[in-house]
Every structure is written in structure tokens, then in C-alpha cells.
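Exercise 7. Predict the structure of O-succinylhomoserine sulfhydrylase from Pseudoprimorskyibacter insulae.
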Amino acid sequence: MSDDWDIRTKLVHKGSRRSQYGEVSEAMYLTQGFVYPTAEAAEQRFQSLGEDEFIYARYGNPTVRMFEDRIAAILGYEDAFGCASGMAAVNGALMALTKAGDRVVSSRALFGSCLYVLENILARFGVEIVLVDGTDNAAWDAAITPDTTLVFLESMSNPTLEVIDLKHVCDLAHANGALVLVDDAMATPIFSYAKDCGADLVLLSTTKHVDGQGRVLGGMIVGSRDLIRGPIETYLKHTGGAMSPFHAWVQLKALETLDLRVRSQAAGALEIAAFLEAHPKVARVSYPTLPSHPQYEVAKRQAESGGTVVAFEIAGGKDECFKFLNALNVFTISNNFADAKSIVTHPATTTHQRVPQDQKDILGITGALVRLSVGLESTKDLILDLKQALDTL
Ligand SMILES: *Cc1c(COP(=O)(O)O)cnc(C)c1O
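Solution. The predicted structure, encoded as C-alpha cells:
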């Protein structure tokens, strides 16, 4: 299997392991344990593991391994570790790589649970957490000091779609001897630029675009073999954040269609963002590759696409937003994103309800903000749905 293959070919074939039966479709190994032919073989396996050898599913499993190898190949890294969810991956990576006295610098615009892990768990164990405005290069320059161990950020933030100049942050972190961890959910695995910009580890909620059909949770930590099979695997195998082989199988098979799905959803998102921008009831649209986006130049330089999510503000506030949400017929009201079904979310009252008001103000999560996740339906039908709902206002 060639490393030179295009991503579409890798998504179908990379990482496959065939059993002695020669199955076409990847097998699901629903087993937590493995038998050894002899006592000597068991002793040997606990000493060192060969390519096709496993001990216990908390440490590794053949179906999970296929999924790990395929994800690592498409993101351009050496290895990956499968986790129970995106948050198991975020928590696992942060806990594995920090200790008391370390300094972690992070962008402020983070997924709520990531912010919780930093401020309420790592801080409890004596890790210093410094939060910066991720779009401000001068803020990163001031915060990343030689005693910084780790830099954490979301490549495109949720829900406001702020874009970080990732190469600038990676170069600065590396000059100061710090590792960079990128939570890459919004950028999508197809349009990810984390490797090109120099990120050391990519954290992926595979619940999002990889499954993309709202079925199972999953997470992945992706990076160099030394980091993944060193501190990351050691931490995770002892603490139990392992991925279920069933979930790995569902998502491994979902990778076969990932490129088709994400490209279609992203093309729809761009079209919808342009439609919304021209609508009189819409006050402001945020989509990274729309020229009106504040970090448009950086977004265009880094990414081929702005992704599958569009954020916008309705003229008015919460009441108008609720009226709009309730009038939609094709978009469903939910809080996930990247699903085949288009989803509408009012972040201020749901996903970000518990974020204190002063933080909401800093992050731009107003009562007027709506987040759309564009699915696989016809874009024409989605735009007609948005139009009829906006026309009720
Ligand atoms: C969804 C999400 C997570 C958490 O992933 P789960 O699979 O739900 O645990 C972490 N970070 C970002 C940016 C996300 O969007």
C-alpha cells in the first residue's frame, strides 16, 4: 500500500489487515482478549509486541488498529491511538503530556469540555493555564515563553469559526521547545492543514465528520510514533479510554465515503454562507473562506475549504432566532455537527448555555447567533428551507 496514493485511495485501502479467510470487507474483531499458543509465547508477547500481536483490547485490537493506521495515513502522520470519544482523546493527550509546574498556553475559543479539562482538571494538578485570543498573533508571541511545555488550540473554533494562523503558532512553539496539540474537529480530516503547518499532535473527534451519520462516538490522537506509542499509549492503556472495536469498525467503513461526503457538505456550506450574506434578515455571516471573514487571508492560505459549518447572526436576538429555528423543516434542531442530516443550533441557549456571560461576550456567542451544520441533502432544498424560515421574521 503506497504512501503516494491520493487521499481517496488511502481512505478505502490503507491499514486493511486480512485474516486467513481473505474477507473483502474489513473484519470486526469483537474480542477483548487474545490467546497464546504456549506459555512461552505469552511471556514473549508481554515482553514485546509484534505487528499482528495483541494482548488486551484496552491496549489495542485489530479492528481499532486498522482504523488507527488509516487515520494516521490520511492525516500524514506515523501513528494514531483510538479513543472512546473525542474528549477521551483530548483528556488523554493533555494528561499524558503534562505534569505539575508545566505551562500550557491555549486559545480561549475552545469547545466547552476542552476548556473544562484545562481549567478544572489540569489546573487542579498544578499546571499553569494561560488563555489567549487565538486570532491575535501578538498575544501568542507574548504568552509562549521558554517555560511553555504545550500549546493547545482549535484550528477553527466552535461555534464562531475563528481561524488561527497555525504556522505562526507552531513555529513560535517549536522555537520555545513546546509541543503543539491541535483539536481539528471543524477543519475536517479531508481539509486538515495541521501537518503542513507543523502540529505535533492532532486530536480528532471522529464522532463528527468521520462517522458523519450520527451513530457512534470516537476519538483519535494522531502524531509521531514516539509520542503515540510512548507517553500517549502508556497513559491510555492504563486509564481505560480505549475505543470499542464495534465503533472502530463503523467508523473505519465510514472512511470509505468521507471524501465524497465532506466535499459535498463543504460545497453546500459555502453556497449557503453566500446566500445568507445577501439576505436582509441576516446581520452577519461567519464562514472562513468567505471574503467578509476577519481572518479570510489566513484561512485561504491554510485551507482548501472553510468546512461544513456556517455561523450567522439574525437581525434581532434570541426571540427571532427561536422563531427561525422553529420554522425550519429540513434542518433539524440538535447540537451535533458534521452529520449527513443538516442541523441548526442556537449555541447561547444550548451548547454554550453554562458559559458565563462575560466569557460569551468575549467569544461573540450572542443571543442572535445561529450555527448551521450542512448535511448531504440537496443544497437547493436547504436554501429554500432557510429562505422560507427567514421570511417568517
Ligand atoms: C465534539 C468535539 C469534541 C468532543 O468530541 P466527542 O466525540 O463528542 O467527545 C472536542 N473538540 C471539538 C472541537 C469538538 O467539536
